[in-house]
Design a protein that fits this description.
The chain is an alpha/beta fold. It is 46% helix and 17% strand. The structure holds adenosine-5'-diphosphate and magnesium ion (2 copies). The site of one magnesium ion has 2 residues, from loops.
Length: 866
């Protein structure tokens, strides 16, 4: 008994999305619901994996396909490969995870010269028959034989200009018949073979090509960018063709059950009369708004809205649907959970919870924390006077300024080099994906809200202005016309994806605030999470911003930035250059009131919430200029003395505080005095946590604790906690000893990652780490996503040992990982008390913490696919 690889849409398959792919499961479910769907069957992802392993179709698959084709013939009353009334099918890829436009689809399979003539006679519509045939030759040529689509497109363009027409639909049956002849010549020139006339051969070639399309470079790039595993494979759907290109009562469209840009509960989409679906998706013809369909095809429109309502209630989420109308009759060809902007995701979740469609928990679980980042991205400064040079569609919100780049390779190279670039194209194709990933935003001349550029940009949270009619591009000359302006590659433009405006030159951008829906979701999240969320903030302004974003304290206040301030640096340098302790103390005495006022500002901004202040951490040479810029011999000498081969592992952190105790004494004094002053002023005692960096040995912290207590005893009495960073592997291993003298510990996972992995971040990123990531030695950058197996295990050991001696030891994390959703989930699982991250990531951390708590209860996001 071999495997079963093929299931009809109305069959009971022994698996779901993983087995049938998103498109296949959607078609099967719609069929079961009684929605109007053309008949067909799905070849499973198992078959794809078997194909990938052997690079040939698994044994028995061809026969199984034959059998299901025979069933399809029985259902439809047509014959596959017949020249009289031929059954035509589409062959469509469909992975478990949606990869829009990444893989291949072939329409009108089963046509050859005879069948086309038969179809023309049978339908009395030769124009339609030849139109379908030329599409098949082009798609088959591209997908199966790898022929450059431009060969076909330029032949079509030439014919249109010879006939003096603008639209494909203006070509006559005779024109299209001639185009078929030209396409067949192109096919023969490119492959050395005649176009395959046998329907069964076409089908098997197409199935193989769809399997192969799983492994194209662009699909691989997309998977890497979206964290999709390489071994999922794609299913293949074989679907009876229905025809949107049969005349004016036919057409094809794409629509969403709610607006994917704003989330508003309105029908949203586009429609093209007398066309096949590829025309909408590829952005070749600019389609009309879906509402015009109501006038042109009222009955089909009624059916469509009724079906959409059913689909949305069935899936309990916004759906993205592809459909075709054949001579007035509606067919659904695809449904999937629709991709949406972060703003839309919030609005939809809040409104669906309000409508009782989903619970608050589900609403919170559904929001993609990483995607929310796009709401915390810049917008055009509303007070800036801007003049739009051209107007396009507002395809993906947010604003970006950057230099014009005209091709994806350059966009990728310049973006990787850290330049701000805007990719400017007539339209984008899936082959541009690597450039889109690196660009700040994308601007296209063609295509609508559902064009490739628009869909991909929304998914990535990048600004996109699409279908900008005032834009034209001369790629060869490297010039661009935007409205009245003549520009060239390298000139700066600004795009506003929220309004569709294109502006010449840079514009000031501002960070947006949290809107009402965002606030609502975060409020719900706060009720659900266990982890507390703090911010890393060094100034009263940062602290105020952090409060606005909902931070419940400061987990890391770095004091070195205060030392760097313009008015402080000369005094700090004086302190470093002093020949003896008394010279140092004199300088420190002048720094003390400055530090104290810094701390007062921060305590006031964080009233009622804890503030962890880390004493001076960086090596002292960071406060001195380079040897070439030294202003005196004494300074030059001191710079030479302080030189270190590996400053990251040198005299810094508590090592500094132990060798030059007067520095930490001054800081402790400033903290305690600030707390007393704020308490006197406001009547409320700040919650002070004094943190000693880079401790590896119990003795280090014991001595610094003693220093802290001694100095604090000399000052007005305030309450405070004394603790340490855990950022060295030794500190993790010996956390039990360290905990004996610590009130709290905060994992400094930036340094802990460096020291545990033996990676110096500066020498890793952009260098060998990039090689590691590109060659799959590491899956993720451990400085962005916590290395849970290595660094995470050290944390686990530290927590066990630390809490072993002190069960109520307060534990947090203050590395950049504290704002990264997967790492936040890990911190939740470890049982930390809080995470601390940059103010702008606080909202993401609040959400991620709630989602981690919900996952414990089994509430997780629905899979998005299609
Ligand atoms: P993609 O994954 O790129 O969206 P699809 O397989 O969904 O590719 O096919 C693209 C478009 O081709 C569909 O939106 C639909 O309009 C059209 N199409 C696919 N199969 C059929 C069919 N059997 N009949 C009519 N149109 C089809
Ligand atoms: Mg589709
Ligand atoms: Mg550190």
């Amino acid at each position: 008994m071999g495997n079963t690889y093929v299931y009809d849409f109305d069959a009971d398959a022994p698996g779901g999305r993983e087995l049938l792919g998103g498109k296949g499961i959607g078609l099967a479910e719609m069929t079961r619901m009684g929605v109007s769907v053309p008949a067909g069957f799905t070849i499973t992802t198992d078959a794809c994996r078997a194909y990938m392993a052997a690079r040939e179709l698994p044994a028995g698959l061809a026969e199984e396909v034959d059998e299901h084709v025979r069933k399809l013939e029985a259902t439809t009353g047509k014959r596959f490969g017949s020249s009289d009334d031929p059954l035509l099918v589409s062959v469509r890829s469909g992975a478990a995870v949606s990869m829009p436009g990444m893989m291949d689809t072939i329409l009108n399979l089963g046509l050859n010269d005879d069948a086309t003539a038969g179809l023309a006679a049978r339908t009395g519509n030769p124009r339609f028959a030849y139109d379908s045939y030329r599409r098949l030759i082009q798609m088959f040529g591209e997908v199966v034989d790898g022929i450059d689509p431009h060969s076909f497109e330029s032949a079509l363009g030439t014919l249109k200009s010879e006939r003096g027409v603008k639209q494909d639909t203006d070509l006559t049956a005779e024109d299209l018949q001639q185009l078929v002849a030209t396409f067949k010549e192109i096919y023969r020139d490119e492959t050395g073979r005649d176009f395959a006339g046998n329907a069964r051969d076409q089908l098997l070639h197409a199935v193989r090509a769809v399997f192969e399309s799983w492994d194209t470079p662009r699909a691989q790039v997309y998977r890497r960018a979206n964290d999709i595993p390489d071994d999922l494979g794609t299913a293949v759907n074989v679907v009876q063709m229905v025809f949107g290109n049969k005349g004016d009562s036919s057409g094809t469209g794409v629509c969403f059950t709610r607006d994917p840009s704003t989330g508003e509960d309105i029908l949203y989409g586009e429609f093209l009369v007398n066309a096949q679906g590829e025309d909408v998706v590829a952005g070749i013809r600019t389609p009309e708004p879906i509402t015009l369909m109501r006038e042109r095809l009222p009955e089909a429109f009624e059916q469509l809205t009724a079906t959409l309502d059913r689909l949305e209630s069935h899936y309990r989420d916004m759906q993205d649907v592809e459909f075709t109308v054949e001579e007035g009759k509606l067919y659904l060809l695809q449904t999937r959970t629709g991709k949406r902007t972060a703003g839309a995701a919030l609005r939809i979740a809040v409104e669906m919870a309000g409508q009782g469609v989903i619970s608050r928990e589900e609403a919170v679980a559904r929001i993609d924390a990483a995607q929310l980042d796009q709401l915390l991205h810049p917008m055009l400064d509303p007070t800036a006077e801007v003049e739009a040079a051209a107007q396009g569609l507002n395809a993906s919100p947010g604003a970006a300024s950057g230099e014009i780049v005209l091709d994806a390779d350059t966009a990728e190279a310049r973006g990787k080099a850290g330049d701000d670039v805007i990719l400017v194209r007539w339209e984008t194709t899936p082959d541009d994906i690597h450039g889109l990933i690196q660009a700040r935003g994308v601007l296209t001349a063609h295509g609508g809200m559902t064009s490739h550029a628009a869909v991909v940009a929304r998914g990535m949270g990048k600004p996109c202005v699409a279908g900008c009619e005032g834009l034209s591009i001369d790629t060869r000359a490297g010039t661009v016309t935007i409205g009245e302006h003549e520009l060239k590659a390298g000139d700066v433009i600004t795009i506003d994806g929220g309004t569709g405006r294109v502006i010449v030159g840079p514009v000031r951008l501002v960070p947006p605030a949290i809107d009402e829906n965002f606030g609502t979701i975060l409020g719900w999240a706060d009720d659900l999470r266990r982890l507390r969320v703090r911010a890393n903030a060094d100034t009263p302004e940062d602290a105020a911003k952090a409060r606005e974003f909902g931070a419940e304290g400061i987990g890391l206040c770095r004091t070195e930035h205060m030392f760097m301030a313009q008015d402080r640096l000369p005094v700090v340098q004086e302190m470093i250059l002093a020949r003896d302790e008394s010279g140092r103390r004199a300088a420190l005495d002048r720094l003390l009131p400055m530090q104290q006022s810094d701390f007062e500002g921060i305590f006031e901004a964080m009233a009622g919430f804890p503030v962890t202040i880390r004493l001076l951490d960086p090596p002292l040479h960071e406060f001195l200029p380079s040897a070439e810029e030294a202003t005196s011999d004494a300074m030059r000498r001191r710079i030479a003395e302080l030189h270190e081969s590996n400053p990251m592992l040198g005299t810094r952190g508590c090592r500094l505080g132990l060798q030059w105790p007067e520095i930490y004494e001054m800081q402790v004094r400033a903290i305690v005095r600030a707390a007393a002053a704020v308490q006197a002023r406001t009547g409320e005692a700040p919650l002070v946590e004094i943190m000693h960096p880079l401790v590896g040995f119990r003795e280090e912290l014991a001595r610094l604790r003693e220093l802290t207590e001694r100095v604090a005893a000399e000052e007005p009495s305030v309450e405070y906690l004394c603790g340490t960073m855990i950022e060295l592997p030794r500190a993790c291993i010996r956390a039990d000893e360290i905990a004996e003298v610590a009130d709290f510990c905060s994992f400094g996972t930036n340094d802990l990652t460096q020291t545990a992995l033996g990676f110096s971040r500066d020498d890793a990123e952009g260098k060998f780490l990039t090689y590691y990531l590109e060659h799959g030695i590491l899956e993720r950058n451990p400085f962005e996503v916590l290395d849970q197996d290595g660094v995470g295990d050290l944390m686990r050991i530290a927590i066990e040992r630390g809490r072993g001696v002190k069960p109520d030891l307060k534990l947090g994390i203050c590395g950049e990982h504290g704002g990264e959703p997967r790492s936040v989930a890990f911190c939740h699982a470890l049982g930390l008390d809080y995470v601390s991250c940059s103010p702008y990531r606080v909202p993401l951390a609040r959400l991620a913490a709630a989602q981690a708590a919900l996952a414990d209860e089994g509430v997780t996001a629905l899979a998005v696919g299609g």
